[in-house]
Protein 1
Amino acid sequence: MHKINRVTIVGGTHGNEFTGAFLIKKFEQLPDLIQRPSFETITLLGNPQAFAAGKRYIDKDLNRAFFSEDLQNSTLSSYEDIRAKAIYQILGDKNQSQVDVIIDLHSTTANMGLSLMLGSYHPFLLQLASYLSSVNPEVKVCYTQAEKGSNFLRSLCELGFVIEVGPVAQGVLNAEWFQKTEKLIYTVLDYLERCNQGSIPESENTLTFYQFIGTIDFPRNEYGEIQAMIHPQLQFRDYEPLTPGDPIFLTLDGKTISYEGTSTVYPIFINEAAYYEKGIAMCLTEKQIDFRF
Amino acid sequence: MHKINRVTIVGGTHGNEFTGAFLIKKFEQLPDLIQRPSFETITLLGNPQAFAAGKRYIDKDLNRAFFSEDLQNSTLSSYEDIRAKAIYQILGDKNQSQVDVIIDLHSTTANMGLSLMLGSYHPFLLQLASYLSSVNPEVKVCYTQAEKGSNFLRSLCELGFVIEVGPVAQGVLNAEWFQKTEKLIYTVLDYLERCNQGSIPESENTLTFYQFIGTIDFPRNEYGEIQAMIHPQLQFRDYEPLTPGDPIFLTLDGKTISYEGTSTVYPIFINEAAYYEKGIAMCLTEKQIDFRF
């Protein structure tokens, strides 16, 4: 593994996810907190206008604006398209990286705890994830790369990943999640420092992770209007097994809809506010245990 | 007390408060649920465009658009100003009521449980509140009338009140709060029916309620930027006593700020997402017990 020279911490990629945005504000005021002897750490407020407005985005989702071809497309000119290109200028991309690690801070209304969202099976990321989940049982690890390349900000860097925390409402700064995320960031930076010193912290040689396999939308009527809600027995049960026949939705008129899959899955992002407009009531994952790397 | 002839249930006055908006959708589909033998119940989706957009409002807060003089002011022409005038045409006002009771459904990111927000000490409202809190211990009662008249939708009717439920994130339909709110509405309607029948349900002759006395903003710097968050010991502690010297905020750099008031107060709307832009970190109330009416 080559030396880590530069780490970027991004917050506020979604303007109403305050945990990350205010951590960036803190690190801007107290930059020594994130410096380590062997590498430089820089901060970036992802979407300043959306943060100022307290909205997820101004024109479109910034964290879906990083397809390579879109970054090269000069006809795309919404606020977020322009912002994505500016971030690309700062951070480079996989082929021409200005940074070695990107940590992109997000929050969710789902009960995701402290989740690491990985976009690749890079051995270094897997070792880091294994270490973090071994020192903090609240840490969960997901692999959510789409097949056709990624439009996520984290994809600008081979060692890019997301820290996703919750449940926390949009537009709210919650001290508990602020502190837990801050502590996790320091653990990551300390880990990277030790790697640079040649003493990679020991961790289990296994990793439990959750592999994205698809999404489920809310039941809707012919006009696209939602006709059922997440079943109360499933709400806040992210990362727990969902077995065929288990309650999944409750219709407005009180009927239970059961999960009709053929095997046990592990839903995540259950009832994430920002995914209603994407037609996603939850994401489904498969639990993978004892993956050796 | 004169007979109740018509009740209006309003939901989605704020478009991203889904509990009320989806209850209106349910009652539109199943109107018999809210009809009672002696009166008519009508429903109203407060802010359809904001609900469709998943936002609190389009141009301005609809639930601050009901000052009498604003309703008469033809120069006010934002979407919500026009919508407020349309609602006023439907419901009338205190002097010319088309309805006898307004129930306006809201949700909050604060831990408000099932709160009744009253704008007057009308004996009928106090008796109703006393009854509801006696049959359901989760019900809390607040008196939040501003001194200079009200710009709330509920103020269009002498017997108007708000049901405020939470904690629930903006833009999320949560089944538990949906069901609790629905049940409370039926309890209200059944109570009104019994009043019309001349058999007012018995309840304690006392009422515990929380009287609004003011607001506290987040600590901010010279640019208006928030420099501290709700202290983790205060988060979700709505309706609990806050005594001088108790932790109230935690600065971004980790310092505790204590409450400097001179007497014990009971904060509500602690960390309500929609109040950041209003400069409100929480509202303070005084607890009043054994109020006899």
Protein 2
Amino acid sequence: MPEDFEKAPANATPSHADVLAAAARIAPHAHVTPVMRSRALDAIAGCELHFKCENLQRVGAFKFRGACNAIFSLSDAEVARGIVTQSSGNHGAAVALAARLRGTTATVVAPRSTPKVKLAAIAGYGARIVPCEHRQASRDEVTAQVLAETGGVLVHPFNDPRVIAGQGTAALELLASAPGLDALVTPVSGGGLLSGTCLAAHGIDPAIELFGAEPEGARDAHDSLHSGTRITGRVADTVCDGLRSELGTLTYPILREHLREILLVDDAAVVAALRLIWERMKLVVEPSAAIALAVVLAHRERFAGRRVGLVLSGGNIDLDGLPALFATGRSE
Amino acid sequence: MPEDFEKAPANATPSHADVLAAAARIAPHAHVTPVMRSRALDAIAGCELHFKCENLQRVGAFKFRGACNAIFSLSDAEVARGIVTQSSGNHGAAVALAARLRGTTATVVAPRSTPKVKLAAIAGYGARIVPCEHRQASRDEVTAQVLAETGGVLVHPFNDPRVIAGQGTAALELLASAPGLDALVTPVSGGGLLSGTCLAAHGIDPAIELFGAEPEGARDAHDSLHSGTRITGRVADTVCDGLRSELGTLTYPILREHLREILLVDDAAVVAALRLIWERMKLVVEPSAAIALAVVLAHRERFAGRRVGLVLSGGNIDLDGLPALFATGRSE
């Protein structure tokens, strides 16, 4: 990703106060999602689990929080230029809906390989879709073209302080609903949700242990934090289609400062956790969300007997792909 | 079903007051389940939908309400004799859990054809399972044997006033959460949930229109009400595995008195509605629950512009059976 693309939005590190401001800003538009419990899963995990149900958020994912905060932070003059983003998934739908609510247009640069259901969701919220190739260079090139042609405002999926602050509002609500949690577990991809969670949680209680959940097949964030260098350029291989991005220049330092650890699991563990959530909690979650439970079950010594919050980040999944997904779980 | 089996429990018709008493009795044990909305489904249906999420009830189905009310209505002396029922599904699990909570034992007579996951759920709550053959005569014979041997107390799946009153508590909660609904739609099988809904709703507002939702392949309740005779002895053929029973002697007259209509849909419509609920609401429901939305979509002229409550009756489904279920939806 070229530097000018990454730095296009304001690049100041957001604070806990920014998360509080985001909560007030998005309140008229976003759902306060429920926090759910499950006796059965508590028994299986050997700890007390509090699930923040962002699969029940608008557009079916936490992404609406960040997109909404970013777009409603803009001036009327900026908004009038239209919103531009690149996304092959939930962020594109989130930007499309938030732009519509703000009364402006959105253009989403999306790889031709994007699943039809996700393109349909983006188009369903009224956004224009501009196709690109799958490789990052093509995405950035086409995004830069669109920005130049339209004069629009970029809302990056995660490397944007307003997006990070918006994503943090999920953890704010979780801790308001379940005060005194010992630990939070959140999926990590580009790090928008996880860094927002860091700012939200440690502003309330610096003693809360914060964990990222990452697939073995996309372990760049884990390896970045262990090596002390932000790793880029790897090819991700995981069923967690929402967790294939790399950390950004804004999110990486926040994670370095706040995070206890990034915990890894393989895809079979993710699928097993997904099945547990569907079967025991009756909630449709996507693999990228189920990974939070997967790491708690795979690293149970870290969580035994403790009160743990998990962010179920989204529920957008192609039901026709389930047989293949479940086969992944069995073959490994 | 032999008369002595049907009449084993008290056979007085329950009242609205019995539903209120049931609500108080089960309050320490049952969940007050959420009522959920969906902008997307309102737009698709052309009316205002309020979904009572009994898939989030304990044991994953409304059945816990009736079983709990019946078992907590018993005297200590009766309870000490143990509970007996026959079930191939959610009622068996509900009786098993309610019996355990009351500190007694349960015996569930279940056909050998019962899916392993459902047997595992029943056994998981500590009940003894006694196998029988699939045909009703075998179920009744084995149940009678178990009753004779154990001296236990029968809790019938639906033809029991305490069970009916317990099931009615779901509609009480729905109407407390969404006052002034114009209509309620509830699945119908043996009629326990639907007749309890009748007593609950018309005790609050006699003008509420009450509808049953029934599969074309198990339309005995529809045909019974149209012919004026309770039909028995048919073989059901539907993907709604919870809707294959026939009306009971207690439930049939309640439906005759209160019901506006029983609406029919085919299995393809049920599967399409199930997919909508999974995809748009992110809720795992079983086919027998999705049928409520299916009838609203299939009979939309009856509901256009109105405020409609639907009971999502349960969420217990074998995920490995999904490809076959979805194929049903496509082939018809």
